[in-house]
UniProtKB/TrEMBL annotation:
Protein name: ER membrane protein complex subunit 2
Gene source species: Castanea mollissima
Keyword Repeat: yes
Localization per Swiss-Prot or TrEMBL: Endoplasmic reticulum membrane
Subunit structure: Component of the ER membrane protein complex (EMC).
Family in the record: Belongs to the EMC2 family.
Keywords: Endoplasmic reticulum, Membrane, Repeat, TPR repeat
Any one Gene Ontology cellular component term annotated for this protein: EMC complex
Function: Part of the endoplasmic reticulum membrane protein complex (EMC) that enables the energy-independent insertion into endoplasmic reticulum membranes of newly synthesized membrane proteins.
Gene3D superfamilies (alphabetical): Tetratricopeptide repeat domain
Length: 232
């Protein structure tokens, strides 16, 4: 979670860079550090560095990190040609890299080539079954296709391996709530409360589910009888 101080720092740096005050690399580094989405700005300011040989060479090994960052931002912005060019550069530099392989799968996703992307991810997982990023990409891909039941299946399989991933438990709970599967959603929040009992948000969400679940049970499954009065 981004703190208020970090949010202010990011906003100030963003304004500075947008107004031509320099600091593009510092801004891009902060975006990566805070793991926030600023795809349009990352694409714009990242390309301004990559397209300038002098600026690019000054990055040293971080040049490849920037290529990866810009590739992901380009896919978010549907600038697929830019993403493809960045990935090609990385493929040439790191021909056997699984990390680059992930980017290739993500590019297939962005193109809507779901079957090819799934094939690429399956191959990567054969080499490394504990690759969390790939597992999460499969979930995201299923949701993007509207295959909620498949997304639930992948999330449950993921959580069998990575039980401590609180974000995944919350994501699964939210999917269950959207499907009115309140009992299953409650189980997810129970897991979160057991692992992080001091987080009020989980207790509140669990209490809300209790109320919603009771309302649904009373409204649709066991409605109260309706008494009609004939008195005048």
């Amino acid at each position: 979670m981004v703190s208020k101080t970090e949010e202010t720092q990011l906003s100030n740096l963003e304004t500075q860079v947008d107004n031509g005050g320099g600091g593009a690399w510092e801004y891009l580094s902060l975006v990566r550090k805070l793991k926030v989405r600023r795809s349009d700005r990352v694409l714009k300011h990242g390309l301004s560095i990559l397209n300038d040989p002098k600026k690019r060479s000054s990055l040293g090994p971080d040049e490849w990190t920037l290529y990866e960052q810009v590739a992901v931002a380009a896919m978010d912005c549907q600038s697929l040609d830019v993403a493809k060019d960045c990935i090609k550069v990385l493929q040439k530099k790191f021909p056997e890299s699984k990390r680059v392989g992930r980017l290739e799968g993500m590019l297939l996703e962005a193109k809507g080539a779901w079957a090819e992307a799934e094939k690429a991810y399956s191959s990567l997982l054969e080499d490394n079954p504990l690759d969390q990023v790939i597992h999460k990409r499969r979930v995201a891909m299923s949701k993007a296709q509207g295959n909620v039941s498949v997304a639930i299946e992948w999330l449950n399989k993921y959580l069998e391996i990575f039980m401590a991933d609180h974000d995944a438990w919350r994501e699964l709970a939210e999917i269950y709530v959207s499907l009115q599967m309140y009992k299953q959603a409650a189980f997810c929040y129970e897991e979160l409360i057991l692992s992080q009992p001091m987080v009020p948000l989980f207790h509140l969400a669990y209490a809300d589910l209790d109320m919603i679940g009771y309302w649904y049970w009373r409204q649709f499954l066991h409605p109260l009888p309706v008494y009609v009065s004939y008195s005048v």
